[in-house]
Amino acid sequence: MFDVKKGFTRRTAIGSALGSAALAVTIPGLAHTPGRKPNFLFIMADDLGYADLSCYGRQEYRTPVLDSLAAQGMKFTHGYANSAVCSATRVGLITGRYQYRIAAGLEEPIGRPGIGLDPAHPTLPSLLKQQGYHTALVGKWHLGGLPDFGPLKSGYDEFWGNRGGGVDYFHHGIVPDVTDLWDGDVRIDEVGYYTDMLANRSIEFLDARAQEPDKPWLLSLHFTAPHWPWQGPNDQAESDRLANLEEPLGGLAIAHYDGGSMDTYAEMVTSLDANIGRVLARLAELGMEQDTVVVFTSDNGGERFAHNWPFTGIKTDLLEGGIRVPFIVKWPGLTAPGSESDTPVLSMDFLPTFLHAAGGAPHPDYPSDGMDLRPALMGAPTPERTLFWRFWNKDQKATRRGRYKYLKINDYEYLFDIVADPLERGNLINRMPEKFAELKAAHDTWNADMLSDPNAASFGWGPQYLADHYGWND
User: Fold this and answer.
1) Start and end of every Sulfatase N-terminal domain (predicted)?
2) Phi and psi for 366 in degrees, rounded to 5?
3) What is the largest CA-CA distance in the chain?
4) Where do the DSSP E strands lie in 338-380?
């Protein structure tokens, strides 16, 4: 068991896309093997809080594998998810664009039938395939179901994982009698703890790729951990209990409103860390480590048992705790070991970054809103940029420019200096009216170019779910 009774240790936060042609003369070799395009191993956790890794401040347990990855590469302290909820961020990630430009990205999250990522839209895997890459998704998709949508329709050569959101870690479905586990477009039924299974499949992928050493690859390894249900590797009995609930609290058993603990959450995160270690060890054993860019991040801020300190807010909030995430990149030949960056970066930045490194570019009809991160990864200064978010639930809006952030929740508006005040407590709206007006106007201008759908789903926490949200408007 993990000792969580001492409480949290409070720590302060460490406090325009560039063209590939301009970068060509300034960026050193992108892979160890001369003339070879880099492989990309993109690892995403699900609902992991900003400070849930010990290298970001967690004290109750250790995450030695991800700590080591940060020590070998660059740790971003101002890394953001495109959204405060899973599928919207995943739309931004795979398209390299603000998700609000795309119908599927308006869902927060996707849950209605017939909604998904249009297969005609260029994606990171489809564009990398044009550059000669073999592409695979292992883990969570959550961008629409068959027959109209799926990973194999959006650029991946291989898929092994779940199509929806959270699944039980032992019976691998939303409901116990139907699995959401797929090998390609074929539903399968296998036995095991899901986090272990995703690592196993990723190792199989690496073994297969080693047979074609000259062909570059993208592996999107999208774990569901530590998303609910709250089940560690030894919690088969809890899985069985949830499967037999006749009237679960909240209406969905695996949402697990009647369970979970800090100990269980620690077990889920440390299992995640250990399984990532297995994958990275196999990468090294196969001699591919120096040819592979490794990224680790989360799809949004943490949920019920996560540690989002020094921020307030959780998943579904545009407070920093709902959108600030761990963001680690190890890029051989590019990142200095043990380096840190306070450059604001976003999920959608990986598409232009990976494509430019691979010799490609975003599709001209679908220009990326992201930034090529390679200068930041080298420690070079980057132009100031403005980042935008919105979230239909509670009519939330946010703009970040420099150290200042405009925030709207329902009918209330705020201006924060999030460098000096990461808790977002001191509202500067009256002290800095010009800055407030500037950022609010910038959001209005940006939002005018985004899509809108009043029927889109948007989930938010209320007092019926979480006691600490008592008094929030539903």
Assistant:
1) 38-359
2) -135, 65
3) 64
4) 339-341, 345-346
Query: What one-character DSSP code corresponds to residue 36?
Result: P
Task: Extract the tokens encoding 397.
Answer: 């809006």
Tens digits of per-residue pLDDT, 332-341?
A: 999 999 999 9
End-to-end CA gap in the chain: 36
Does any domain span residue 52?
yes
> Token pair of 432, please?
């800095």
Nearest to 345 by CA among 82, 105, 101, 108: 82
CB 50, CB 252: distance < 8 Å = no
| 76-93 pLDDT tens trace | 999 999 999 999 999 999
Indicate if 268 and 396 belong to the same structural domain. Answer: no
Kindly report the CATH number assigned to the domain that includes residue 334: 3.40.720.10
Residue 295 belongs to what domain range?
39-382
Q: Counting beta carbons within 10 angstroms of the beta carbon of residue 452, is it exposed (0 to 12), middle (13 to 18) or buried (19 or more)? A: exposed
Residue 294 to residue 328: CA distance in whole angstroms:
8
The reply to whether 336 and 411 lie within a common domain is: no
Burial (CB count within 10 angstroms: exposed 0-12, middle 13-18, buried 19+), residue 372: buried
pLDDT tens-digit readout, 199-243? 999 999 999 999 999 999 999 999 999 999 999 999 999 999 999
Which CATH number do you get for residue 416? 3.30.1120.10
Distance of alpha carbon 47 from alpha carbon 320, whole angstroms: 14
- Rounded Cα gap, residues 299 and 289, in angstroms: 25
CB 324 within 8 A of CB 15: no
Is the Cα torsion angle 418, 457, 179, 175 positive or negative in sign? positive
Q: Would you say residue 143 lies in a domain?
A: yes
**233-241 long-range contacts, CB within 8 A, separation 24+:** 233/193, 233/195, 233/196, 233/267, 233/271, 234/267, 235/169, 235/170, 235/264, 235/267, 236/170, 239/168, 239/169, 239/170, 239/171, 240/170
- Asked if 51 and 308 count as a contact pair (C-beta separation under 8 A), the reply is yes
CA–CA separation, 242 and 254 (whole Å): 7
